[in-house]
Amino acid sequence: MPIQDQIDLFLASPAFGVVGASTNREKYGNKILRCFQQHNRRAIPVHPNESEIEGAACAATINDLPTEVVSLSMITPPAVTAKLVPIAIEKGITNIWMQPGAEHPDAVALCLERGVNVIADGSCLLVVLGYGEH
Q: CA 98 to CA 76: how far, in whole Å?
């Protein structure tokens, strides 16, 4: 499937999980969350120790995300990505976007094996959607 079709499929989700969301506005985990918000898309930050980030209520884990979340943005170190992708697949996530630097070859291979739409080619949501620093 062409990358643009993969991105369109990812963006068709009614809501998005943001794994690696951060309260630090300088970190990409925060910028990705704000990018979704700037484009009026429902994004749920996943963070085990925060109750809310940028005004959005957090899910403590991937398993705590609401069922309408079928697309997950991952802004995590590769080793963390590798641990969390199997959990996301078991939960029923059908689209995983590993932001640049989050990619892990085993996680990508698992997605491909399980029929999950995986974006891990260096494409960045901030560029695709367009992000403005506010």
A: 8
